[in-house]
């Protein structure tokens, strides 16, 4: 497979061209022939013009690439190596929603030929590839797993908004269903990953490695959020405590905050779901999730308490929320916990204005039914900075003062302004 791809005797098809799939497809397209397939024709049309619909890549990333963008299933038939990078969200019960993954597998199964490779990149629980996806590939193709087609798993570790840890600079874990395919898959990724690949012995190990990376982060942030709640009651500044503790060589640097998005706030549910099938109730993982999922409501409740303490009638209060993306410096609003803060405040009767220099007005309207304002309309009783985009980093006390009533409450969730605020009522996690 490796030789045929390098010699351009065959092609790779990347299924799902989102945050993960598009960078992979473009990187490979500098070395081999690639077919980029996505169900959404509107996204394909943008990519054909050299535009990344997720706004992570510049038009330069498309230059010099041997790639065909398509939403036509017939176009992927000529590929022999398939890389699947479709979403793996959770449903309303916080259980794995495998529909996009199984649908993509169904599509690949229909075009699978003897000798083909399928490599999954979507984050899943250990066992998903071989227990849930492989049977679909076998059923649709009539071929036998391992004997007639090979499967691998290579999780993605890119971090949206991070210009330093980009795809080619992150070590990639690779695996295959047998020794030969594992080696070929590793070599294929070595074509593009400058940082090198890390071979593991099985697909399950690769699946597990990815899901625990994000689960570990979720649990650590949950611990910081719990500390923040405790220290708030004790009237101790959490950030000052964390900075002092971090002077010890082995203290881990994590900070409190809202945990949203489609990875850290989602992947632990995949692991705890699978653990349950083995009669293990994942207590630490679930506790972390419960804390982090409740943080938006906690923040809103603190704001309410503080404004009531100022003797304000909260139904008359106007609040500005700055930042609605799931984290700083990205455009992605999926599963953003800023909307928990907003909706909880609205449920108390507040008027809540929202601004964000990066989020799309249309998406906020479609996904959450809310209007993003292009500019704040002061004066406000409280301003909550949920994520600190670069555009917000240099704001100072005078700016916030100019946007608020005389007793403005500034809620600086990430502690960005903690050394710059002297006179305002100030609270951070
Ligand atoms: N976004 C990240 O930073 C990141 C990082 C590491 C891992 N991951 C994981 O990678 C996977 C993909 O995430 P993403 O953020 O790229 O998702 P995304 O929503 O940005 O993109 C997915 C793309 O797949 C397309 N798609 C959906 N179903 C399809 C199908 N059946 N056939 C073809 N195309 C289909 C969608 O139209 C979309 O363009 C997920 O499992 C995610 O957990 C994401």
CATH class of the largest domain: Alpha Beta
Please give the share of residues in helix: 25-40%
What's the average pLDDT? Answer: 96
State the CATH superfamily name of the largest domain: NAD(P)-binding Rossmann-like Domain
Strand order of the largest sheet: 3-2-1-4-5-6-7-8
Shape from CA axes? elongated
CATH architecture of the largest domain: 3-Layer(aba) Sandwich
Note the gap between the termini.
52 Å
Determine the structural class based on helices, strands and strand pairing: alpha/beta
List low-pLDDT spans. Answer: none
Q: Biggest sheet, in brief?
A: 8 strands, mixed
Strand content: 5-15%
Summarize the helix and strand pattern as letters: HEHEHEEHEHEEHEHHHHEHEHEHHEE
Number of helices, where a helix is a run of at least 4 consecutive DSSP H or I residues = 14
What's the number of domains?
2
Q: Cofactors and ligands present?
A: nicotinamide-adenine-dinucleotide
C-alpha Rg, in Å?
24 Å
CATH topology of the largest domain: Rossmann fold
How would you characterize the overall build of this protein?
The protein has about 425 residues and is an alpha/beta fold. The chain has two domains: about 1-200, NAD(P)-binding Rossmann-like Domain (Rossmann fold); about 220-425, Rossmann fold. Helix content is about 40%, strand content about 15%. It has helices at about 1-5, 20-30, 40-50, 100-110, 130-140, 180-190, 205-235, 240-245, 265-275, 285-310, 340-345, 360-370, 390-395, 395-405, and strands spanning about 10-15, 35, 65-70, 80-85, 115-120, 150-155, 170-175, 195-200, 320, 350-355, 380-385, 405-410, 425. The strands form two sheets. An eight-stranded mixed β-sheet has the order 3-2-1-4-5-6-7-8, with helices on both faces. A five-stranded parallel β-sheet has the order 10-9-11-12-13. Helix 4 (about 100-110) runs parallel beside helix 5 (about 130-140), helix 7 (about 205-235) packs across helix 9 and helix 10 (about 285-310) crosses helix 11 (about 340-345). The longest helix has about 30 residues, at about 205-235. The structure holds nicotinamide-adenine-dinucleotide (NAD).
């Amino acid at each position: 497979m490796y030789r045929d791809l390098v010699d351009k005797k065959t092609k790779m098809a990347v299924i799902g061209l989102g945050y993960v799939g598009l960078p992979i497809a473009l990187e490979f397209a500098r070395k081999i022939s690639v077919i980029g397939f996505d169900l959404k024709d509107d996204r394909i049309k943008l990519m054909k013009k050299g535009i990344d619909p997720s706004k992570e890549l510049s038009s330069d990333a498309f230059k010099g690439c041997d790639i065909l963008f398509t939403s036509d299933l017939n176009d992927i038939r000529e590929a022999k190596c398939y890389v699947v990078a479709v979403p793996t969200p959770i449903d309303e019960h916080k259980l794995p929603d495998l529909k996009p993954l199984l649908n993509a597998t169904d599509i690949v199964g229909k075009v699978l030929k003897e000798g083909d490779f399928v490599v999954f990149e979507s984050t899943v629980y250990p066992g998903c590839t071989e227990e849930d996806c492989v049977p679909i590939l076998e059923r649709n193709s009539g071929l036998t797993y391992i004997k007639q087609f090979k499967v691998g798993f290579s999780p993605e570790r890119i971090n949206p908004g991070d210009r330093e840890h980009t795809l080619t600079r992150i070590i990639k874990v690779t695996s295959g269903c047998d020794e030969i395919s594992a080696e070929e898959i590793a070599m294929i990724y070595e074509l593009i990953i400058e940082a090198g690949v890390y071979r593991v012995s099985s697909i399950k190990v690769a699946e597990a490695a990815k899901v625990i990376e994000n689960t570990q982060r979720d649990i650590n942030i949950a611990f910081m959020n719990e500390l923040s709640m405790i220290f708030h009651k004790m009237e101790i500044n959490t950030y000052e405590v964390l900075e002092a503790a971090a002077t010890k060589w082995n203290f881990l640097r994590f900070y409190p905050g809202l945990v949203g998005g489609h990875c850290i706030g989602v992947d632990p549910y995949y692991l705890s779901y699978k653990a349950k099938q083995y009669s293990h109730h994942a207590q630490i993982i679930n506790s972390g999730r419960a804390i982090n999922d409740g943080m938006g409501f906690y923040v809103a409740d603190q704001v309410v308490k503080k404004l009531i303490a100022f003797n304000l009638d909260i139904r008359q209060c106007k609040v500005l929320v700055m930042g609605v993306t799931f984290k700083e410096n990205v455009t992605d609003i999926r599963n953003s916990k800023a909307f928990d803060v907003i909706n909880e405040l609205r449920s108390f009767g507040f008027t809540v204005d929202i601004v964000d220099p990066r989020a799309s007005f249309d998406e906020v309207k479609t996904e959450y039914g809310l209007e993003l304002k292009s500019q704040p309309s002061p004066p406000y009783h409280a301003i909550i900075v949920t994520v600190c985009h670069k555009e917000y980093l240099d704001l100072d006390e005078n700016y916030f003062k100019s946007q608020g009533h005389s007793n403005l409450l500034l809620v600086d969730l990430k502690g960005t302004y903690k050394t710059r605020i002297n006179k305002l009522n100030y609270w951070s996690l």
